[in-house]
């Protein structure tokens, strides 16, 4: 989980490889209307996100041996929607500074999410709470190192 450009897709794929679990990019699970809205520079509302989050929860609930999904899951209430379907979900929060992630996002090509929406993501972001299964990792580390730390956490 995390804001745009934190490395969810890259680290998620590496984590899936390390754990032998399938990887699914949450961006690919968005309804077309959500992608169109974000591409036009408009932040999604909670109502826009709800069906998407429910589909992620259902996907995880039906992944018998587990799965890795790269998904923003910015608010506690969003994570609760996922956990309603898949209560054993563990969140790996890839966290970084605004300046670092804005720089990464500015260099990214071919993605529907414009840099202008990073502010709204940081405004929306709620840190993992003590009663939520998960860990927060600093994205100054390499993707390989982050995947290894996440894998160790999941094994522990």
Descriptive account of the structure:
The chain is mainly α and 156 residues long. Helices cover 49% and strands 10% of the residues. It is built from seven helices and four strands, in the order H-E-H-H-E-H-E-H-H-E-H. The chain has helices at residues 8-19, 32-39, 46-61, 76-85, 98-107, 118-124, 143-155, and strands at residues 23-25, 68-70, 91-95, 134-138. The strands form two sheets. The chain has a two-stranded parallel sheet with strand order 1-2. Helix 1 (8-19) crosses helix 7 (143-155). It is globular, with a radius of gyration of 15 Å.
- Which of globular, elongated, flat, extended, rod-shaped describes the shape? globular
Please write the string of helix (H) and strand (E) elements: HEHHEHEHHEH
Main sheet: strands, sense, barrel: 2 strands, parallel
Q: Give the beta-strand count.
A: 4
User: How much helix is in the residues?
Assistant: 40-55%
Structural class: mainly alpha
Distance between the termini: 19 Å
Q: Describe the strand arrangement of the main beta sheet, using strand numbers.
A: 1-2
Low-pLDDT stretches: none
Residues in β-strands, percent: 5-15%
**Number of H- or I-type helical stretches:** 7
Mean pLDDT: 92
C-alpha-based Rg, rounded: 15 Å
List the helices and strands and how they pair.
Layout: H1 8-19, E1 23-25, H2 32-39, H3 46-61, E2 68-70, H4 76-85, E3 91-95, H5 98-107, H6 118-124, E4 134-138, H7 143-155
Parallel strand pairs: 1-2, 3-4
Helix pairs in contact: 1-7, 3-4
């Amino acid at each position: 989980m995390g804001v745009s450009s934190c490395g969810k897709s890259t680290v998620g794929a590496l984590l899936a490889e390390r754990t032998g679990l399938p990887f699914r990019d949450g961006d690919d699970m968005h309804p077309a209307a959500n992608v169109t809205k974000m591409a036009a520079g408009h932040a999604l509302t909670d109502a826009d996100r709800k069906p998407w989050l429910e589909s992620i929860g259902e996907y995880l609930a039906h992944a018998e041996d587990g799965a890795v999904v790269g998904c923003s899951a910015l608010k506690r209430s969003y994570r609760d929607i996922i956990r309603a379907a898949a209560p054993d979900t563990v969140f790996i929060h890839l966290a970084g500074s605004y300046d670092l992630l804005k720089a990464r996002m500015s260099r990214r090509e071919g993605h529907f999410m414009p840099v202008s929406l990073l502010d709204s993501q940081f405004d929306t972001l709620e840190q993992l709470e003590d009663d939520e299964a998960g860990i927060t990792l600093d994205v100054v580390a390499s993707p390989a190192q982050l995947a290894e730390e996440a894998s160790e956490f999941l094994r522990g």
